[in-house]
Design goal:
- The structure holds two protein chains of two kinds.
- Chain A is built from two helices and six strands, in the order E-H-E-E-E-E-H-E.
- Chain A is of the alpha+beta class.
- Chain A has one domain: Alpha-Beta Plaits.
- In chain A, the strands form two sheets. A four-stranded antiparallel beta sheet of chain A has the order 2-5-1-6, covered by helices on one side. Chain A has a two-stranded antiparallel ribbon with strand order 3-4.
- By secondary structure, chain B is mostly helical.
- Helices cover 62% and strands 1% of the residues of chain B.
- Chain B has a two-stranded antiparallel ribbon with strand order 1-2.
- Classes of the chains: A alpha+beta, B mainly alpha.
């Protein structure tokens, strides 16, 4: 089993979710995060005080899928999340040791 | 030990007010009249109509030329004037709760939002108690004739004459208004007494202990506010140029440029210098946590300020009407000019600019509103958008003091500017009361009297604050919370609550 973590621009979430659904991946966990890479932040000025805000809001998507689905999932996410501009994000793939469905106690690939 | 001393101070003040009253009663008991009184004749129909006309013009009853009569509507409040003043009092309270705490609250970080709210509510209750026990009496007791009642003549009024609001009932006190109940007048003025120290909170936000703030305010009211208000607005005040022919300084201040804004603003500067900067100031992000709340608070301040300014006419008359208009013009113009300058200087007009401009306009027009005309209001609006802006943007960063929410930049500078401009722009054409005692100086040397009043106010506020701050520091063992509390935020440590919970 593989875990895929994708950091994407927030407005791309719907597109990525729909694209994954089309290749049969229906479940995911989503969190609101902030971060930066090469994309610059912005400056806010309140009366005389200036503040530089480096962090940008991003969305992190986490999915755990079978080894067979992994390559297609990564390609789908990359295609759906791309805008071509700096700050599009990254996808990470790691190996998952075990997965358990809480309701039925199924283990392994039948749990994802 | 500190809590004990703090409580002792509060009890001492209360006892002072309570024990003063019986002494006063003993001194003024009169023996019953030996002769039978002749019941005065009813006024004629013509005299009664004259009385009604006087009510419309906000003037006194029972006399015309040399003829006097026992008016049927003497000692009775007039519905229109009284109704307006009750509304005004509510509007001014609305400025503090919630106007000011939203304005300031939105500008502080999330972790301190409740501390601002608690401080405003705390001040409201504390000042009310002081006002009732001896504050109102100290500011407004005495009459033009018997000014020997003052504790310090023309400066500090008697604490006991109206202590516990003795004698303050629904009949008008004609020293201050012919047609407004004295209890209404007292409550109206209470709202001013409440918001003035609350303004100071802006400079010391996020880094002063709650107990220290309350003790500071209690002492500051007695040492600075009550004497200053007595001098400027008390009937025998040493700086009451409009109504006191024997004033030492013939200055004018319609709704409180000196009494409210200069006093709180300059005190705020001193206190913020004594306190020192917030931890992380200049390095960490201290941006406002909610410009939305700030903007809401600003709107409430603007609307409430109509009670503050137009209500200072203490009547629903032409003077109030004029003040209503000038307040609107000055505020709207300043609110426009400030962000305009931002647009030119740094590329974007900000919401904080609109809010700051509006408040600056309100502050600068405060001492002037009942004495100037529409053109004067326009001048004030432009000046208010520029000069306080300069102090908030340039002067503050040049000197590096942590006036967190710009109380000094807006209220001290705005109040001083307003007091000065009033001296140049006041005209009897909108307020004939300027001709009562000031006919010779209005439009001529009034500005000099304003400068004297500015000087007295400045000295009193600065010296008073320095002394009180160090007294409080001594009694409570420090003004600031410990570093860990300041870092975590005042809300949890001082009030046991969080303003917002993460979902």
């Amino acid at each position: 089993m593989k875990k895929i973590e994708a950091i994407i621009k927030p407005f791309k979430l719907e597109e990525v979710k729909d694209a994954l659904g089309e290749i049969g991946i229906e479940g995911m966990t989503v969190s609101e995060v902030k971060g930066f890479g090469r994309q610059k932040g912005h400056t806010e000025i309140y009366r005389g005080s200036e503040y530089t805000v480096d962090f940008l809001p991003k969305i992190k998507i986490e999915i755990v899928i079978t080894d067979a689905q992994a390559e297609a999932a990564v390609a789908t996410i990359v295609k759906a999340a791309r805008t071509g501009k700096i700050g599009d994000g990254k996808v990470f793939v790691s190996t998952v040791e075990q997965a358990v469905r809480i309701r039925t106690e199924e283990k392994g690939e039948s749990a994802v | 030990m500190k809590k004990f001393l703090f409580n002792l101070a509060l009890i001492a003040f209360t006892l002072a007010g309570l024990t003063a009253s019986p002494a006063q009663n003993a001194a003024t008991t009169n023996a019953p009249a030996a002769t039978t009184e002749v019941k005065p004749a009813d006024p004629t129909d013509s005299q009664r109509i004259t009385d009604i006309e006087q009510y419309f013009q906000n003037m006194g009853v029972g006399a015309a030329g040399d003829t006097k009569w026992a008016s049927k509507i003497a000692n009775v409040p007039g519905p229109g004037h009284n109704g307006w003043m009750m509304t005004s009092a509510a509007l001014v309270l609305f400025m503090t709760l919630p106007g000011l705490f939203l304005f300031y609250g939105g500008l502080v970080r999330r972790k301190n939002i409740l501390s601002v709210i608690a401080q405003c509510y705390g001040i409201a209750g504390l000042v009310t108690i002081l006002w009732v026990v001896f504050g109102y009496s100290s500011v407004f007791s005495g009459s033009g004739a018997a000014d020997t009642e003052d504790v310090i003549k023309g400066v500090v009024g008697s604490y006991s004459a109206n202590g516990m609001l003795k004698g303050v009932d629904s009949a008008p006190n004609t020293n201050y208004a012919y047609w407004v109940s004295q209890n209404v007048f007292s409550m109206y003025q209470l709202m001013f007494a409440i918001i003035t120290p609350a303004l100071i909170l802006g400079a010391i936000a996020e880094r002063m202990k709650f107990a220290a703030i309350l003790l500071f305010v209690a002492l500051w009211m007695v040492v600075v506010y009550f004497p200053l208000a007595h001098m400027v607005w008390g009937i025998n005040g040493a700086m009451n140029g409009v109504w006191n022919a024997k004033a030492s300084i013939h200055a004018i201040d319609f709704a409180g440029g000196t009494v409210v804004h200069m006093s709180s603003g300059w005190s705020a500067l001193i206190l913020c210098l004594i306190l020192g900067k917030r931890l992380g100031f200049g390095r960490e992000n201290m941006a406002p946590h909610s410009m939305v709340l700030c903007a809401i608070g600003t709107g409430m301040l603007w609307v409430g300020w109509y009670g503050f300014n137009a209500g200072s006419a203490v009547a629903a008359d032409g003077v109030a009407a004029n003040a209503f208009m000038t307040t609107t013009i000055a505020t709207a113009v300043a609110s426009f000019v400030w962000p305009l300058i931002e647009w030119m200087v740094r590329g974007k007009p900000s919401v904080l600019g609109f809010c700051s401009g509006a408040v600056a306009g309100l502050v600068v027009v405060t001492p002037a509103c009942g004495f100037i005309n529409a053109s004067g209001a326009l001048v004030i609006g432009v000046a208010a958008g520029i000069i306080p802006w300069f102090f908030c943007y340039k002067i503050k960063s040049w000197f590096g003091y942590d006036d967190a929410l710009d109380t000094f930049g807006v209220h001290a500078i705005g109040g001083t500017l307003g007091a000065l401009l009033t001296g140049f722009l006041a005209t009897p054409s909108v307020n004939s009361n300027l001709n009562t005692n000031l006919k010779d100086i209005v439009g001529k040397t009034l500005w000099l009297e304003q400068i004297k009043a500015i000087g007295v106010t400045l000295v009193l506020a600065v010296v008073g604050t320095v002394v009180i701050a160090y007294v409080v520091k001594l009694v409570l063992g420090g003004l600031r919370p410990v570093d860990e509390v300041e870092r975590a935020g005042l809300d949890l440590a001082e009030h046991g609550e969080e303003g917002y919970h993460q979902a």
